[in-house]
Structure formats: C-alpha cells, structure tokens
Amino acid sequence: xxxxxxxxxxxxxxxxxxxxxxxxxxxxxxxxxxxxxxxxxxxxxxxxxxxxxxxxxxxxxxxxxxxxxxxxxxxxxxxxxxxxxxxxxxxxxxxxxxxxxxxxxxxxxxxxxxxxxxxxxxxxxxxxxxxxxxxxxxxxxxxxxxxxxxxxxxxxxxxxxxxxxxxxxxxxxxxxxxxxxxxxxxxxxxxxxxxxxxxxxxxxxxxxxxxxxxxxxxxxxxxxxxxxxxxxxxxxxxxxxxxxxxxxxxxxxxxxxxxxx
Length: 261
Hints:
By secondary structure, this protein is of the alpha+beta class. It is 45% helix and 16% strand. It is built from ten helices and eight strands. It starts with a strand and ends with a strand. The model is unreliable at 193-198 (pLDDT under 50).
C-alpha cells in the first residue's frame, strides 16, 4: 500500500483513516520544515510516535520533573547516570525508585499522543506510509487506538483556531475567575492526588453559562492561580491538545483567564 501526499491537500486524518480501514501495518513518516515524525502502526494501533532528533525518552525525565513527579535534583542524578551508562532514562528512574511502571506508561503514552496530535496542527507538511511488518518497540508507550485517535483529532481540530486565539502562548499564567457549579462526582484530589490550594475562587456570575464537562472540571481544579500554562499541561492527566481544549472552554465561559507573568 503506497500512500504519500501533502497535509494541506489531503489531510493527515484522511490518510490515517485509509490506513485504519485497510488494517495495514507499517511506518508513517510526516515531515515539515521543522520536524520529522515517525509513527509505527500495527493493524489499527499506534505503537509509537516520535520526532527524529527529539526522542521521547530524552524528554520524559524533564516532563516528570515539571509535573512534580520527581525533583530537579533527582532528575540531575538520573541524567548524570545516563551519561555514564547510556541506560534509558526510564530504566534509571525505575532502578532508583523515582517512578513506577504505571507512571512511566502514563507519561510515555501521553507524550506519544502529544506528538501525533501536534502533526494534526501543521499547516503544511508531507507524509508517506511504508507498509511492512512492525516489531513492537521497547518503550513504555501503551498501544493507542487509531480509530479513537482519529475521532479525538477531528473534534479537536474543529476547535483549533479558537484554541490558538485564546491560548496564544504557553508562557502565560492562569487565574481562576469563578467557581464551577457543585457536583456529586469525586474531585480531582480524590482521583489523581490533586495539585490545588485551599483557597476558593469567587462564586460564578448570576445567569452565567455553566455547561462544562468532567474534563473541564479537572482542568479548572488544576488551574492554580499563578501557574504557567506549560506546567498545567504537564500536570494534566490528559494529552496536551485535550488540555488546551478544556482550558479554552473555561476561558470562553469566563471561569479562567490568562495573563502575563
């Protein structure tokens, strides 16, 4: 199965849909002026998604540190050991007892998802699918459903222009403006351990719209006043574009606002 083209002519979602419907396996390579992304696909499942020159293993430690899973000092020790031994950072973190297998799987899978969704946002680029048998790589990435990824990608890309307008940079910081209406479901603190403070934001304005979903509630709870957007993205239990979508909804409904630090 030969498949190649330009993202501006025949979108990546369309190409992935063809691969998914045909049940093909192989490598999909996507390139633009800045990045070279390679996806390993096996019968409707994405096994890995990495940028050439920016392997996820190298970034994983930094992301864990920004998310508060490990400290800056612990990351420094782990990186120094990697320089000496050439071990993968994941194996070092496990051996040092700094992260669990489940934590590494969660973050590695989210990073692969982020890489794929970043390609969805490209305005220009090329792609080429090389069909062939795939050997599962030795990573902590859990197989990602191509069908589910497509559905999420199409929904998010419909909202991408609005997201870019409301979140122009990840260097801004968040502020809560209004509280969300009460709910009976478990809070983020109960489900994920929480990162929030004890201060309650002001009540919502009378007559304001309060239509937000479960994901938006979690992001609202994570949006500690003064936290920069990049750290919020790292701490979120969702991939980056879904987190930005939720944050965009909260900004649009005036529950959260962004400001310069």
